[in-house]
Design brief:
The chain contains 3 helices and 7 strands, in the order ααβββαββββ. The protein is of the alpha+beta class. The strands form 2 sheets. A 5-stranded antiparallel β-sheet has the order 1-4-5-6-7. A two-stranded antiparallel ribbon has the order 2-3. It is elongated and about 50 Å long.
C-alpha cells in the first residue's frame, strides 16, 4: 500500500513536471527576451493534463486515470494554480498547489522546482 501511495505521489509530481520544460536558475531582473515573451504568451491560461511521464516513461492508464481530471492555470503576473485529484487511504480528494513561475527561455519555464516540457 505504501508503494502504491508513493507511485501516486510521484504521479502528482509528474503532472506538474509535464506542463513545461523547467531549468533551475536564479531569477534574472533583466528585461525579458523575445523568446521569454513568446513563451509566456503561449503559457498564460488554462491547461489540462493529457499525458504524463516520469523519468521518460509514460504513466499507465490505470495510474493516470484520476490525474486526467487535473488542470493548471498560469496567470500574467507569473503565478500558477494546479488543481488535481489525490487518492489517500482509498478516498479521493481535490488539492491545489499554488506558486510563481519564471519563464527561462523559448518553451522553458521554471516552477515548483521541477523540469518538464511544454507541448503546444
Amino acid at each position: 500500500m505504501k508503494d502504491l501511495l508513493k507511485i501516486r505521489s510521484w504521479m502528482i509530481y509528474a503532472f506538474i513536471f509535464s506542463l513545461a520544460l523547467f531549468v533551475s536558475c536564479e531569477k534574472d531582473e533583466s528585461k525579458e527576451t523575445p523568446e521569454q515573451i513568446a513563451t509566456k504568451e503561449k503559457l498564460i491560461g488554462d491547461w489540462k493534463l493529457i499525458s504524463s511521464k516520469v523519468d521518460g516513461i509514460f504513466i499507465g492508464i490505470e495510474d493516470f486515470s484520476y490525474l486526467k481530471e487535473s488542470f493548471a492555470n498560469f496567470s500574467p503576473d507569473n503565478t500558477y494554480n494546479v488543481t488535481y485529484k489525490k487518492i489517500s487511504n482509498g478516498s479521493t480528494s481535490t488539492s491545489t498547489l499554488s506558486g510563481t513561475y519564471t519563464v527561462i527561455g523559448l518553451n522553458s519555464v521554471a516552477f515548483f522546482n521541477s523540469i518538464s516540457e511544454i507541448n503546444w
